[in-house]
Design a protein that fits this description.
The structure holds 2 protein chains of 2 kinds. By secondary structure, chain A is an all-beta fold. Chain A has strands at about 5, 10-15, 20-25, 30-40, 40-50, 55, 65-70, 75-80, 85-95, 100-105, 105-110. Chain B has strands spanning about 5, 10-15, 20, 25, 35-40, 45-50, 55-60, 65-70, 75-80, 85-95, 100-105, 110-114. Chain B is globular and about 45 Å long. The chains are: A mainly beta, B mainly beta.
Chain lengths: ~110, ~110
């Protein structure tokens, strides 16, 4: 069974731009969660989607948004990028009713 | 609110010696606790999960953790370290109100010397 796939693996953007990251969950998993990992703040929860609906949300500004498609694939978008948005963005999927999350390798975003 | 505290930012051991990574938790509920490992430039891999069925939890690669409610601890151990164990380890608690919302500790970097 294929694991969680995140694309692209690396991104370089400049301040003010916007970016979209993609996540394909493990087949059969309908819950997708996103996390931001930085050296200063560690791993922080962004949001979780289930059946195309945002079910949980962390404490991030509205510039961070996401969506989920009917096939459970998810995207997250960051608008008006800031230098502080440079981070590893991790996606995780899980079966509904099971709180074990399986992580992808992440997308490393650098904002210049 | 749920939280975890990893007591050591770095732990250094020699290959073949025991590993102890310490974690204390704070939870007003019966917690769901996890240990994840992250190798350089890789995602997170689940080592083990505490399910309340047993206080001693066995995980992959010879790791285990013991849940001690009286001490609010969930320390990770391994009898004999291997070079491939060098990585960052995260103690994690799940938020009971946001079932899939994980709260991570700050991480412990394990260094293994030959």
């Amino acid at each position: 069974k294929a694991g969680v796939t995140q694309t692209p693996r690396y991104l370089i953007k400049t301040r003010g731009q916007q970016v979209t990251l993609s996540c394909s969950p493990i087949s059969g998993h309908r819950s997708v969660s996103w996390y931001q990992q930085t050296p200063g703040q560690g791993l922080q929860f962004l949001f979780e989607y289930f059946s195309e609906t945002q079910r949980n949300k962390g404490n991030f500004p509205g510039r961070f948004s996401g969506r989920q498609f009917s096939n459970s694939r998810s995207e997250m978008n960051v608008s008006t990028l800031e230098l502080g948005d440079s981070a590893l963005y991790l996606c995780a999927s899980s079966l509904d009713g099971e709180n074990i999350q399986y992580f992808g390798a992440g997308t490393r975003l650098s904002v210049l | 609110a749920q939280s975890v505290t990893q007591l050591d930012s770095h732990v250094s051991v020699s290959e073949g010696t025991p590993v102890l990574l310490r974690c204390n938790y704070s939870s007003s509920y019966s917690p769901s606790l996890f240990w994840y490992v992250q190798h350089p430039n890789k995602g997170l891999q689940l080592l083990l999960k505490y399910t309340s069925a047993a206080t001693l939890v066995k995980g992959i690669n010879g790791f285990e953790a013991e849940f001690k409610k009286s001490e609010t601890s969930f320390h990770l151990t391994k009898p004999s370290a291997h070079m491939s164990d060098a990585a960052e380890y995260f103690c994690v608690v799940s938020d009971p109100e946001g079932f899939q919302k994980l709260v991570f500790g700050t991480g412990t970097r394990l260094l293994v010397s030959p």
